[in-house]
Amino acid sequence: MKNDYSPSNLDFASLIQPSSPTGRFSDPDYFIWCGSVVEDDSGKWHLFYARWLRCFGFQAWVTHSEIARAVADSPCGPFRHEAVVLPARGAEFWDGLCTHNPTIHRFDGRYYLYYTGNTGDGVPTSGLNWTHRNNQRVGVAAATRPEGPWERFAQPLIDTTPGLADALCCNNPSITRSFDGSYLMVYKAIGDQGELPFGGPVVHLVATSASPTGPFVKHPQPVFLKAGVSFAAEDPFIWTQDGCYWAIVKDMGGHFTHAGRSLALFTSKDGFDWQLAAHPLVARTEIRWADGTLETLEALERPQLAFRSGVPIALLCAAQMRDGDTFNVQIPLRTSR
User: How far apart are CA 147 and CA 83, in angstroms?
Assistant: First the structure.
């Protein structure tokens, strides 16, 4: 019997199983972040992830990140690096110096890689390079095979709109095919009402399209809000299952789970009106390894799911240890009672 994916019953935390050491993907030369997988026709799994050289420092994610691809026989690894997918292509392009936040999907036999891109002065800094951050936009690349070649576009898929909640910048896209065959995206939107360069508030907007490559129509009502909090959530991953829309998001401070920084579960009947799920806690900022060890982390975020026959079989997250090291972790999920 499959797990009950209904708003009143789903306890996602109960699906999480211990992680194998092979489910830890890292690189001695690069910081590793994000991580989204797709299965090809041969049964190989392709991990699209963000990386940047350690010598530039952790904050260089905003100036020097590039999206790369790794391959494994299982969604839980072990993965091996294959190639850079979206390299720098020149400061004159909207995504010319940095690509980040990959999420990979296959629609009607074609692969679509949604991501955040930016441009700027190309200078890594000890803090955040705000020019690069505030040039963030949402884009997509398309291919007939995970190996590419990948078609990149001259314009972003989601750009800023003056007067809207994304007036300053936008990033962190997540997308699903709706029950009527259209496409619904949720992305992080940063307004220009707060003091610059940070701006704010930081919320999320919904956008819809008849095509995976747009154009997308924005819906102005923000989602995943918490009264009195200007930056409550980020990193949404959305999907449809059993007649409902679902989202796993990063809870920035336990505003929804009451478990500190954590991952929270939301649900929706239509993809626009999102409610906290009956069992909101997905995961605390920790990993249970197969040997029984419980590792407390500095960060566990950027959730993504791996699917087989429409059922989630693994949760992937970006992880940062207390010493600053980073990796992608693939966490197996129980798929039946």
Answer: 8
* 212 phi, psi to nearest 5 deg: -65, -15
Interacting residues of 315 by C-beta distance below 8 A, sequence separation 6+: 16, 248, 282, 283, 303, 304, 305, 306, 330, 331, 333
To which CATH superfamily is domain 12-332 assigned? Glycosyl hydrolase domain; family 43 (2.115.10.20)
Query: Where are the chain's structural domains?
Result: 12-332
Instruction: Quote the pLDDT of residue 3.
Output: 75
The DSSP bridge partners found for residue 249 are 264
For the record, the structure tokens of 81 come out as 């690096």
Percentage of the chain beyond pLDDT 90 is: 96
Q: Do 70 and 80 contact (CB within 8 A), yes or no?
A: yes
Segment 237-257 mean pLDDT: 97
pLDDT of residue 319: 98
User: Please, what sign has the CA dihedral across residues 20, 26, 31, 36?
Assistant: negative
CB count within 10 Å of CB 196 equals 10
Mean pLDDT rounded to a whole number for the chain: 97
For the chain, how are helix, strand and coil distributed in percent, rounded to 5? 5, 50, 40
Contact, 1 vs 337, CB < 8 A?
yes
Q: How far apart are CA 292 and CA 3, in angstroms?
A: 25
d(CA 314, CA 104): 15
Separation of alpha carbons 250 and 44, rounded Å: 29
Dihedral pair phi/psi, residue 56, rounded to 5°: -85, -10
